[in-house]
Amino acid sequence: MNRFAITAVLALSTALSGCNLAPNYTRPGAVVPPSFPQGGPYPRAKTDAPDVTKIGWRAFFTDPRLQAVIDAGLANNRDLRIAAGNVLQARAQYRVQRADLLPTVNATGGATFTNNALGAGGGAGAVGAGAGAGAGTGATGGGSTDFQIYQGQIGISAFELDLFGRIRNLSRAAQEQYFASEEAQRAARISLIAEIATAWLTMASDQEQLRLSRETLKAFAETSRLTRAQFEIGVASELEARQADTNYQGTRNDIAALTAKIAQDKNALDLLVGAPVATEQLPNGLAANRLTREALPGNLDSSILLSRPDVLQAEHQLIAQNANIGAARAAFFPQISLTAALGTISTALSGLFSGGSYTYSVGPTIGLPLFDAGRNKGNLDYARASQVVAQATYERAVQTAFREVADALAQRGTIEEQVSAQSARVNSAEVAGRLSDARYRAGVDSFLVALDAQRTAYAARLQLVTTRLTQESNMVELYRALGGGLAEPTPR
């Protein structure tokens, strides 16, 4: 090929290098209201509240033991390691795909040794001339000539000139999948922090209920013993004795169930952390003081959801499918590949890089799909269908995020009232228990009324612990739903 043809091919490649057949990407329109619900059960936004996404988890979770457990989980959790491995895989795949944008340069060397027999006739052989010449000898009636050729070259093989953006779109798709895997890792990190905190708080709540049950068991055991003794001497009825024993046995059952549940809580915590949690890092009942910071957003604009890792992951996957359409479209157009080499050739190894002859070759090829039995059309249809699925997945991710935040806000707006009401209920139940006992001793009420008051007070105290757990867990869920937990460096 002459220089004009080479120049023409390169000029055409440069002119068309900006051709991209992928659809122009635009983020899908809003599929949720512009702001979160307000009024009714929903709290008002606090204008002076900090940006939740800027609050690191160490600042949000104030208990040092819980902080240590979360630290261990971030270091050992297997799901997080899988997510990190997926990032490495996607990054490597992107590098492989991106490499197709540039030619692969190879260096090769070789030697050819040929022995040709001479026909009839005598005479001394002479050293041949020319690129393929070698030393030869001959004799009357026969002889031979040896040829030795050495060559070395540097060249590119079948480099596709990306005129219609096929390779660039495949590279873009791989890049977006890599970005999506990074967002998936960030989402896994947020979820893990929230899951560990919730499991730790659940264990603390169960420990607190176990403590209350054990305290109550002592009182119920004494009441049951006294009532049984009174029944045996005819002072109390069998109904009263049986009711007292019912309270006692019911509390025994609660203790056994809570003991098993705490062991299960520990197992769940160990699984989340990825290693046994040290005893000194475990909770010791649900503390009276709050273990989490306020996580109410300063503004209730739903656009905050667009920065959640799971939403960003879905968007990157949508962009990747958009690029795949461009690659599928480009397959309908000609593909031009270029093979070129530059090297030297010599009859002596010592003269390969000094006295040899320089050689070069350029060989462009062009391929135009004429008949493929519908393969390219099928690939394009598949890419378009995948984009539809990816867009629906993205929209669902936004809607799911909106619902999670709205649910957490609805509970946040009423949980303070629930805690206040349950605390008042406990106080009233305890006072009622004391009054019922006094009325029984004064002969005004039967002992059954006092026993029922004791059981009511016990149930109210257990329910208060559950309500306080709901309060703490709600803060954790709202923090997670708003994308909190990423302010500190993500381990790689």
Automatic annotation (TrEMBL):
Signal peptide (from-to): 1-22
Membrane topology term: Lipid-anchor
An example molecular function term from Gene Ontology annotations: efflux transmembrane transporter activity
GTP-binding keyword on record: no
Classification via Gene3D superfamilies: Outer membrane efflux proteins (OEP) (1.20.1600.10)
Location(s), subcellular: Cell membrane
TM helices/strands, residue ranges: none
Location, primary (coarse class): membrane
Keyword S-adenosyl-L-methionine annotated: no
Record-level GO cellular component terms: plasma membrane
Keywords on record: Lipoprotein, Membrane, Palmitate, Signal, Transmembrane, Transmembrane beta strand
Similarity remark: Belongs to the outer membrane factor (OMF) (TC 1.B.17) family.
UniProt name for this protein: Efflux transporter outer membrane subunit
